[in-house]
UniProtKB/TrEMBL annotation:
PANTHER family: PTHR48408, XYLOSE ISOMERASE. Mg(2+) 2 binds at residues 275, 278, 314, 316. It is found in: Cytoplasm. It comes from Catenovulum maritimum. Mg(2+) 1 binds at residues 239, 275, 303, 346. Belongs to the xylose isomerase family. This is Xylose isomerase. One of its GO terms (cellular component) is cytoplasm. Its EC number is 5.3.1.5. It catalyses: alpha-D-xylose = alpha-D-xylulofuranose.
Length: 443
């Protein structure tokens, strides 16, 4: 991939990031991410399908609830919306190509400021900036992993978008949704994401939950039907999150989303986009959410980040925990990878990280963490007794009466008779410490 620059080079101190191996002392080089390395039968780049995220990387400035951000990015300097949008896109594609990222993703309002635009005016703005994005994609080879609409930041969506109790507001959200789907199709986006930041409630006292969920399902069916009619062949992803900003969000976790998709007949077209930090906010592990998705055939894509164990909010830090990511990659590999999606870095540098190069360092570390974990997980699955030990724990279901039970061939009376004859069953160790030691051995 060749570096694509605009009229100005925004990161002149950083060249194209290359793989140099774990013995390299170069902070601007991959130690583990070797895109062409074959892991479990195919190149690492094809398993992970890394994507840069527009919002945190190019729209955020390190702000928090207590004040504006200290990060000063030159692409925010132009006074007019179109000038800021093109400058930001120049910086973004310089970054994507220097990082050798094959994909990127965005919210509609990341690409160009909505400001006080009408639907028609915002549609014209999106046409302008997506024309420019198409030129950048063609020049660089970088593809759009997925697009989405920001239907949570504007005050008009304070009570939700697709679940809003007020029909005119839901319709306004539908108009913005249509524009975002159009932009995604125009840029050959491979998927489309719904993150329902305000699709939930603050208080049940004033909430008709059933109507809101029924309306949301209808809204999603309309979006799916429109996209299909206009040639979109990819998956739609729902991104689970339990709370924040609402008290309770309807897409609480992967199991909740799975139940919703099956109830409303959406499971054929929709998968989940699982975020690490959202999993922990739901009191789950990342690997738990991946396993639930894999078991229900809805493992679509991943938002890669991490939370802070001392903070109970969405801190969106870059991933760096090898043990946890290795456990996740075990699930990932046994599931056969992702369906349609990739690993996109919904992560941001810390408020205090104000050098332009810090953006590169965060992504390099995150990509290396996933790459190293993928390698380790593959070695565990192919070289260790991990799978054999787990199978042994469930061996009583593979033959005899245990197998008859799983096949539905036993009545409760027959089960009770077997249980009476068994008496007190022998005690079988779960061997958790051994499994944990295997992880550490291969790391």
């Amino acid at each position: 991939m060749s570096v694509v620059l605009g009229d100005k080079e925004y990161f002149p101190s950083v060249g194209q990031i290359q793989f140099e191996g774990r013995d390299s002392d170069n902070p601007f080089a991959f130690k583990w991410y070797d895109a062409e390395r074959i892991v479990a039968g195919k190149p690492m780049k094809d398993w992970l399908r890394f994507a840069g995220c527009y919002w945190h990387t190019f729209c955020g400035q390190g702000h928090d609830p207590f004040g504006p951000g200290p990060q000063r990015f030159e692409w925010n300097n132009p006074k007019d919306a179109k000038g800021r949008a093109t400058a930001k896109m120049d910086a973004a594609f310089e970054f994507f190509t220097k990082m050798n990222l094959p994909y990127y993703c965005f919210h509609d309002t990341d690409l160009i400021d909505e400001e006080d635009s009408s639907v028609t005016e915002f549609g014209q703005k999106l046409d302008f900036i997506t024309d420019y994005a198409k030129e950048k994609q063609d020049a660089s080879g970088v593809k759009l992993l997925w697009g989405t609409a920001n239907l949570f930041s504007n005050p008009r969506y304070m009570n939700g978008a697709g679940t809003n109790p007020h029909f005119p507001t839901l319709a306004r959200a539908g108009a913005q949704l249509k524009l975002a789907i159009d932009a995604t199709i125009k840029l050959n986006g491979e998927n489309y994401v719904f993150w329902g930041g305000r699709e939930g409630y603050i208080s049940l006292l004033n909430t008709n939950m059933k109507q809101e969920l029924d309306n949301f399902a209808q809204w999603l069916h309309m979006a799916k039907d429109y996209a299909r009619k206009n040639g979109f062949e990819g998956y739609f992803f729902i991104e689970p999150k339990p709370m924040e900003p609402t008290k309770h969000q309807y897409d609480f976790d992967t199991a909740t989303v799975s139940g919703f998709l099956n109830k409303y007949g959406l499971a054929d077209d929709f998968k989940v986009n699982i975020e690490v930090n959202h999993a922990t906010l739901a009191s789950h592990t990342f690997q738990h959410e991946l396993q639930v998705a894999a078991d229900n055939n809805i493992l679509g894509s991943i938002d890669a980040n991490r939370g802070d164990y001392q903070n109970s909010w969405d801190t969106d830090q870059f991933p760096n925990n090898i043990n946890e990511t290795t456990e996740a990659m075990l699930v990932f590999l046994e599931a056969g990878g992702l369906q349609g999606g990739g690993v996109n870095f919904d992560a941001k540098t810390r408020r205090e990280s104000t050098d332009m190069e810090d953006i590169f360092l965060g992504h390099i570390g995150g990509m290396d963490t996933f790459a190293r974990s993928l390698i380790v997980a593959d070695e565990i699955l192919t070289k260790s007794k991990y799978k054999e030990l787990r199978a042994q724990r469930y061996s009583t279901w593979e033959e005899g009466k245990g197998k008859e039970f799983t096949e539905g061939k036993l009545t409760l009376e027959e089960l009770a008779e077997i249980g009476t004859a068994v008496g007190e069953p022998e005690q079988i160790s779960g061997k958790q410490e051994l499994f944990e030691n295997i992880i550490n051995q291969y790391i």
